[in-house]
Amino acid sequence: MRGRYLWILFLLFSCSERMQVNKVEKKEYVFSSTSNNESDSVILKKIQPYKSQLTEEMSAVLIESVQPIEKALPEGILGDLVADAALDCAKKIYYPEDAKQVDFIFLNNGGLRKALPKGPITRGDIFEVLPFENELVVLTADGGLVRKIVNFIASKGGMPVSGIRFQIKGQEASTILINGAPFDSTRTYKVATIDYLANGGDQFSFLSEAKKKENLNVKLRDAMIQNLESLGKSGKKLDIHTDGRITHER
Question: Is residue 78 within 8 Å of 61, Cβ to Cβ?
Fold first, then answer.
């Protein structure tokens, strides 16, 4: 096997008001399948305790499911599960000055990277489903922005949501219910999502129109883990069915 070379440049700066390169030193390190074996074994020995601890944590069973949990459009049980867990978490930790709680949440299907298996679900499984470091945020949105959000979701054929129900008619949303009440275009709503979308990801640039954005400093993944762990400790199993929160108008 041909050795690989790593070139490291050491830049030494003179201590002056204006930073200038004073000296350049170059060293060459050779890596191959047969060299540096002793160093590799030393490193492996040092990281082994951390690796064992991580493996134990990732293998911890949170809950059991009676069926595989997959995403789908316009609504899927995986999206429902994650959105419900995130909304529950947001409502528990969000204490705004105006005392107005979170009304609903929307997420993106692209952020759900893997289905959950039938049987034991581990912490590691959740890391695989939600591998990104996305955090929950709350947007204060007027009726016009909420209308844009639900219409955009409808145009995409659906997304994971909780706290809201609507039908897709063509490329728009109709018969919108938020917390069981008809959508009021004159109202201001508190809308939860993830920072990736709130910052304009997945073509959500129009979310910059929100009156306010508040970061809850909780990762979506952690909200999911805490929710499943709590359910599992209560002796429950996951038995999920879609409930028609997003449907196509007939």
Answer: no
pLDDT at position 51:
60
Start-end of CATH 3.90.780.10 domains in the chain = 69-248
Q: What is the dihedral of CA 94, 161, 137, 216, to 10 degrees?
A: 40
Please, what CATH class does the domain formed by 69-248 belong to? alpha beta
pTM (two decimals): 0.80
Element (H, E) at 120: strand 119-122
Q: 180-211 burial string, b = 16+ CB within 10 Å, else e?
A: eeebeeeebbbbbbbbbbbeebeebeebeebe
Residue with structure tokens 């959500």? 204
> Residue 88: pLDDT band by 50, 70, 90 thresholds?
very high
In tens, the pLDDT along 154-163 reads 999 999 999 9
